[in-house]
Design goal:
The complex is a heterodimer. By secondary structure, chain A is α+β, with helices and mostly antiparallel strands. Chain A has helices at 15-30, 55-58, 61-66, 104-123, 166-171, 195-199, 205-220, 231-245, 248-251, 304-313, 318-331, 341-353; strands at 3-13, 37-43, 46-49, 70-73, 81-83, 87-95, 127-130, 134-137, 140-150, 153-161, 222-226, 263-269, 272-281, 288-296, 300-301, 336-337. In chain A, helix 1 (15-30) packs across helix 8 (231-245) and helix 4 crosses helix 7 (205-220). Chain B is of the alpha+beta class. Chain B has a single domain (21-128), classed as RNA polymerase II/Efflux pump adaptor protein, barrel-sandwich hybrid domain (OB fold (Dihydrolipoamide Acetyltransferase, E2P)). Chain B has a 7-stranded antiparallel sheet with strand order 7-10-11-5-4-3-12. In chain B, strands 6-8-9 form a 3-stranded antiparallel sheet. Chain B contains 5 helices and 12 strands. The chains are: A alpha+beta, B alpha+beta.
Chain lengths: 355, 146
């Protein structure tokens, strides 16, 4: 039997106000006073860090301030993102017991696959889920996602890139970049894409809502019912904005000195050079890859393999990363390459040793 | 020690089964709090752990820490209210300790509780926790600890 879900659109808001509304939805759903809900939202220019990230480390704060980009902290996990009117937020708050799945990773996969299928059907694109939490087209990220769990209440949100300049999006984030853009793969648009770039025009907002809603309805067997944001939600969101989410104490609660610490390693062979740039979290034997970028003049088909490899390595324990490179290529369908998996492994391990 | 669906549940602890939290009375009036093996198995490998800061008050039933696994964040809720008097810095530095050793090295915080008697009355002793956990796992569709 289909699960009934309310659909609301809270329109364009400031970043911290949107996050406060997220928290309000979670609290009120946990209290049993609102139904399972699909919410659409849009942001005024805001750079958001993940729940456990240090703002100074993840964002180019001076650039954000200079450009009037607000700073906020999500209550969901994952990495920093930049949001403006060129993106659409979509999110679900739901009862776990009504839609039982074995693990949180299963919710991520099922929700992302459903949203991707809706976008593909509506716009004739080939959007797919890429573990752990992206929706991509031809290897380029179109939507990132993250979640929050509290007892029976699950909250899952995604960011759909509609019309944005990838270089501008990346310019507010402290992510590894090749020092000089020598190769096509060094350009931001090699790793992220937008519906505008894919379609040659910007879809109507209503069509975007319908695409995602119908994808989720079909994939999760939902019966969607149009609704409105409630007074109780607005009041709780305002209270949370005033007392917690909107405060600098919350946004900068976790902080660390700004740094651009990364490791860099290169391997050169007859077929070209591969260079790895890597940033890590943690220390000692708990070091994990926070972000990774490969560049070089190597030849690899299909080219998206490099992007899939980067996605597969994010979050991996540093000690196991070299073996993960070998595992990736062992199961990848590689048509042709000018350098070997061992070259990628060597460049990565060299970079990790130099962080 | 009770084991339910492969999850160890030491019988010398007290449990908040609904929130997958264990409590240990230290003997000096304070209590040590951590996540059960069920919590860490459900969440997957933890990537971040952020406790409330030392000196902060935790209201009963509210979050004393947040954890992150695979882009999912969740609160660790304490049935007991009180003041945080110590946090496990080793767990902050290495969150996977909670997966590897949930009842010892993976502890989260030490709390100086207010009205511990009332909170304690809501908890389940290790000797009785097996049946409660089996019931919860069935309701949650939880397969078990690996």
């Amino acid at each position: 039997m289909s699960l009934e879900f309310r659909v609301i659109d809270t329109g364009l808001r400031d970043g911290r106000a949107n996050i406060a509304y997220d928290a309000a939805l979670i609290e009120l759903h946990s209290e049993g006073t609102i139904p399972d809900t699909l919410r659409f939202l849009q942001f005024r220019p805001t750079a958001l860090v993940g729940r456990h990230q240090a703002a100074s480390r993840e964002l180019k704060l001076e650039r954000c301030h200079a450009d009037g980009v607000a700073i906020g902290r999500r209550i969901t996990g994952g990495g920093a993102i930049y949001f403006d009117e060129g993106m659409l937020g979509w999110e679900l708050v739901l009862s776990r017991k009504r839609l039982l799945m074995p693990s949180l990773a299963d919710y991520t996969r099922t929700i992302c696959e459903s949203a991707a299928a809706g976008l593909s059907r509506a716009f004739g694109i080939d959007a797919r889920f890429r573990p752990r939490n992206d929706i991509e087209v031809a290897g380029r990220k179109l939507s990132g996602t993250g979640g929050f769990f509290d007892g029976d209440t699950l909250f899952f949100q995604g960011t759909l890139l509609i019309d944005a300049d990838p270089a501008a999006v990346m310019s507010y984030l402290n992510v590894p970049r090749a020092k000089i853009e020598r190769h096509d793969i060094d350009r931001p648009e090699a790793r992220i894409t937008t519906l505008s770039a894919l379609l040659g025009g910007v879809p109507e907002l209503g069509d975007l809502h319908r695409a995602i809603a119908e994808g989720l309805a079909q994939g999760l067997d939902l019966q969607l019912v149009a609704g409105e944001p409630s007074q109780a939600e607005e009041q709780r969101a305002q209270m949370l904005l005033d007392t917690e989410i909107g405060t600098d104490a919350f946004v900068y609660d976790i902080d660390a000195p700004a740094d651009d610490a990364h490791g860099e390693g290169s391997t050169t062979g007859p077929g070209g050079t591969v260079t790895a740039f890597v940033r890590i979290d943690g220390a000692g034997d708990s070091r994990r890859i926070r972000d990774i970028l490969f560049t070089g003049d190597f030849f690899l088909t299909p080219p998206r393999l490099v992007l899939d490899l980067e996605a597969a390595l994010r979050g991996r324990e540093a000690d196991l990363a070299g073996a993960a490179v070998e595992d990736f290529f062992a199961s990848a369908h590689t048509d042709l390459f000018s350098i070997s998996p061992a070259d990628f492994r060597s460049a990565l391990e060299m970079a990790l040793a130099r962080v | 020690m009770p084991t339910v669906r492969g999850c160890n549940l030491p019988d010398d602890l007290l449990y908040d089964v609904a929130n997958n939290i264990w409590f240990r009375e230290i003997g000096d009036g304070t209590i040590k709090i951590g996540m059960t093996a069920v919590a860490t198995a459900m969440a997957g490998q933890l990537l971040a752990f952020t406790p409330k800061k030392v000196g902060k008050a935790v209201p009963a039933g509210k979050s004393c820490a947040t954890v992150e696994s695979g882009k999912w964040v969740g609160p660790a809720k304490s049935a007991a209210g009180g003041e945080v008097i110590a946090v496990n810095d080793a767990l902050v530095a290495n969150p996977k300790l909670a997966n590897e050793d949930p009842y010892d090295a993976g502890w989260m915080i030490i709390l100086k509780p207010e009205d511990w008697a009332t909170a304690k009355a809501t908890l389940i002793s290790g000797a009785d926790v097996g049946a409660k956990y089996e019931e919860k796992m069935a309701a949650d569709g939880f397969a078990g600890c690996a």
